[in-house]
Design goal:
Elements lengths: L1 E4 L7 E11 L2 H11 L16 E6 L4 E6 L10 H13 L7 E8 L2
Antiparallel strand pairs: 1-3, 2-4, 2-5, 3-4
Length: about 110
């Protein structure tokens, strides 16, 4: 079973696109989320706000993703600058390279 938190989808198929990291263990996933959800990162004056973080877990193949959807790129910020800000935020939590991750599945 795949579990997704952060937005609603229909019950038979789903997909996501995030700029972030993929990790292999629940411990690493939880560690990153705990650091990024620290109140110091959850301020509305930051262009990249940890309140908008997306996290996904795959119960079938033990994959975990943490990142930000490009839909949260502020209108007055270029995508390049947004990516730089996301990388800075993740640098506080992990040394895993930040990149685009796109996944999808169908359960029907």
């Amino acid at each position: 079973m795949k579990i997704k938190r952060g937005f609603v989808t229909n019950s038979s198929s789903t997909s996501f696109l995030i700029y972030g990291v993929r990790v292999d263990t629940q411990n690493e996933f939880d560690k990153i989320l705990n650091i990024l959800n620290d109140p110091d990162y959850c301020t509305d004056d930051r262009p990249i706000n940890a309140r908008k973080i997306a996290d996904y877990m795959s119960r079938w193949d033990e994959n975990y993703w943490v990142g930000f959807s490009p839909e949260y790129c502020p209108d007055d910020m270029t995508m390049g600058k947004w990516k730089e800000e996301v990388k800075k935020l993740f640098a506080q939590a992990t040394d895993i390279p930040v990149d685009w991750h796109c996944e999808g599945w169908y359960d029907g």
